[in-house]
Amino acid sequence: MKKRLLILLIILIVSICLAIGDWYFVSFRNSAFLAVSEAKAIEMIKNRFPELKEYPGVTKLIKTEKSDDGWYVSFIQEGLGTQISDARCYWVKNNNKMFSKDYTPQAPDFIGRFSLEQCKLVAK
């Protein structure tokens, strides 16, 4: 009787461990599968804002940067030289939600790198 109870207990524990392991791996695989790609993020923005379909171009750039849960995407209009005359910045999350951020211009003599997350030039 005790052996049967012990065997049933072991079977129950193994079944629970297998169920938890299966749930974990299925959840992990689905979250990786649902991640938005760089191309999909750009496409989503262009579909929502048709005026951005002309990007990229001669003085129009698209820059992207992967974040932990999505993509930062910036549509940048260059002015004279390498100055940025305007930019439209977005954060597309893996759950397909989109957030925008206004471009913050710096003084014309400010030299820095463009931060897609902050949507402005920042010190190098």
Topology, please?
Blueprint: H1 2-33, H2 38-48, E1 60-67, E2 70-78, E3 84-93, E4 98-102, E5 113-115, E6 120-122
Antiparallel strand pairs: 1-2, 2-3, 3-4, 5-6
Structural features, described:
With 124 residues, the chain is α+β, with helices and mostly antiparallel strands. The chain folds into 2 domains: 1-33; 38-122, no CATH class. Helices cover 35% and strands 31% of the residues. The protein has helices spanning 2-33, 38-48, and strands at 60-67, 70-78, 84-93, 98-102, 113-115, 120-122. The strands form 2 sheets. A 4-stranded antiparallel sheet has the order 1-2-3-4, covered by helices on one side. The longest helix has 32 residues, at 2-33. It is elongated and about 85 Å long. The chain starts with a helix and ends with a strand.
